[in-house]
Specification:
This protein has about 375 residues and is α/β, with parallel strands linked by helices. It is built from twelve helices and 15 strands. The protein has helices at about 5-10, 35-50, 60-70, 80-85, 100-110, 125-140, 150-160, 195-200, 210-215, 225-240, 335-345, 355-375; strands at about 30-35, 50-55, 75, 90-95, 115, 140-145, 170-175, 250-255, 265-270, 275-285, 290-300, 300-305, 310-315, 325-330, 375-380. The strands form two sheets. A nine-stranded mixed beta sheet has the order 14-13-12-11-7-10-9-8-15. It has a six-stranded parallel beta sheet with strand order 3-2-1-4-5-6, sandwiched between helices. The chain is globular.
């Protein structure tokens, strides 16, 4: 490492840099909160786009060590509060479990930081409202990690609907298929885990390695894939149709192979948007049409989106089985991260604000409540109250 680089790093952790002072030639610095697989993935792309990680926080020491291989000069912390107290950090990249999203974000705002936070926005409807209010009051830039909001090819698909090509949309079907379900691994962990720190506000219990490894499948720490993958897809449904959050939801599902998980890996939810219906189905026990897709059914045409791109067929389909439009449609993470970095400098609002993310996760949160209660649940206009 050169002496100039040593000087920069020393200065970065010795004196605060106000985001408003950043110029086009400055290299912004950030702290990474949670260095699991997603956190390290984001870390590599932020570095690729010119930002510098100067601090890393995680409760599992092997994850910390892996992150430091990519950013060997960063300081390490177990407490996110201690990381946030360090000077010289322009913004925070937050990628922890769902039940930490709200606390990590609110604490980052209190520390005066802009934030790139992973989805889903929250662990429940009330947290979403709390986050939106706090971000509004802070004046900080917050981008939620729903990268389809910054994918140029997705904009092309939206234009097909905006141009009226599909006619009146009456049904939208979102789905995700992966054949990866299996019993959870509860064998001992390979390194030190600060278990109490991981639990945070969740129910206190003895260490269970499976709850750490597969936290997404337990209600104390996440909303399952109803909210995780559902946030991505239901956001596209609402964005493309111009709808807000759904009026009501019903849901059914079960744990087929992920024993002893709590959140189902086979489920289907139905959402009522008033002038159209939408379904959201996930099956992690089958790989037919592997990955995600969204089918928009209009009375004049149908559009199917997936990882490969989008295809449009005219009605009636039986006589029009050859597509009238096809487009490759990658969803790169770089454009979403770059949008955030640009907004940190310009102070303009990013492509995926917390308000967008609140509406995107409201339906999946409602569907989980319908699953718990075994009945149709209605969502209030405040996006918090239910009945």
């Amino acid at each position: 490492m050169t002496s100039d680089r040593r000087s920069f790093l020393t200065g970065a952790l010795a004196a605060p840099l106000a985001a408003s002072r950043l110029s086009a030639n400055d290299r912004p610095t950030y702290g990474l909160i949670a260095a699991g697989g997603r956190g390290r993935y984001l870390n590599r792309y932020f570095a690729k786009l010119g930002a510098q990680c100067v601090a890393v926080c995680d409760v599992y020491e092997p994850y910390m060590d892996l992150a430091l291989k990519d950013t060997p000069d960063a300081r390490k912390f177990v407490s996110h509060q201690e990381l946030l107290a360090q000077p010289g950090i322009d913004f925070i990249v937050s990628a922890g479990p769902d039940h930490w999203h709200c606390a990590h974000l609110l604490d980052s705002l209190k520390a005066g930081k802009d934030v790139y936070t992973e989805k889903p926005l929250s662990h429940n409807l009330a947290e979403s409202k709390k986050i939106v209010d706090a971000v509004k009051a802070s004046g900080k830039i917050v981008q939620v990690g729903m990268q389809r909001r910054s994918a140029p090819s997705i904009f092309k698909a939206k234009k097909v609907i905006d141009d009226g090509t599909l006619g009146r949309i009456t049904m939208v079907k979102a789905q995700w298929h992966w054949n990866n379900a299996r019993p959870l691994d509860n064998s001992p962990l390979d390194g030190k885990l600060h278990w109490e720190r991981f639990l945070g506000s969740a129910k206190k219990r003895p260490l269970e390695p499976q709850r750490w490894r597969r936290w997404r499948w337990f209600w104390d720490y996440a909303g399952g894939n109803m909210t995780d993958q559902g946030t991505h897809l239901m956001d596209v449904v609402q964005w493309f149709t111009g709808a807000g959050a759904p009026k009501s939801a019903m849901s059914h599902g079960y744990v087929a192979k992920n024993m002893p998980a709590e959140a189902p890996e086979v489920f289907s939810a139905v959402f009522d948007y008033g002038n159209f219906m939408a379904t959201w189905t996930l099956n992690y026990c089958n790989s037919y049409e592997d990955g995600w897709s969204i089918l928009f059914q209009g009375d004049e045409a149908t559009m199917r989106m997936d990882d490969a791109g989008f295809v449009v067929w005219k009605e009636p389909w039986k006589q029009n089985r050859e597509p009238v439009m096809q487009e490759q449609s990658p969803v790169p993470i770089e454009t979403h991260i770059q949008n955030f970095l640009d907004c940190v400098k310009s102070r303009q609002q990013p492509n995926c604000t917390v308000e967008i993310a609140q509406r995107a996760v409201a339906g999946p949160h409602l569907a989980n409540l319908a699953y718990f209660k075994g009945k149709t649940m209605k969502l209030g206009a405040d996006l918090v109250s239910v009945s």
